[in-house]
Amino acid sequence: MKLVIRFLSISFLGYLLTSCTETKSFQCQKIYRIANEVQKETQSLTKSGQEVDKKTWLLAADKIEQAADEMKDLKVNDDQLKNYKALFAQVYLDYATATREIIKVWETKDRLAAKSAQEKVKKAGQLEREVGEKINSYCGEK
Description:
- The chain is mainly α.
- It has helices spanning about 1-20, 25-45, 55-75, 80-110, 110-140.
- It contains 5 helices and no strands.
- Helix 2 runs antiparallel to helix 3, helix 3 (about 55-75) runs antiparallel to helix 4 and helix 4 packs antiparallel against helix 5.
- This is Lipoprotein.
- It comes from Aphanothece hegewaldii CCALA 016.
């Protein structure tokens, strides 16, 4: 009888553990939540890129960097989603770095630095679009 109870307890525990595993869809939603939040915050802070106040842009860079850290720390089990979240974190770090470089360019009027910062933003934007398309496709699969 004790053996049967132990077997049932182990079976029930196994059931609980497997039923508590996050679905791919739920993990996708966690990544989307961070991506959407950082987009809304930075658009709000910078008035969709129209703001010219340096302090506001530095604050936006800080928010973007925080999102990168959040994305890095996000727990997901799916290997492909781990890859996508790492890529998004890199995109956000690249945006934050480029934003800070742009602030310096405003102050120094350094054309070479301006071109470099512009190129970083362009590359980060391209990577963001590519990762966004891939994760949307992956998360849309059944």
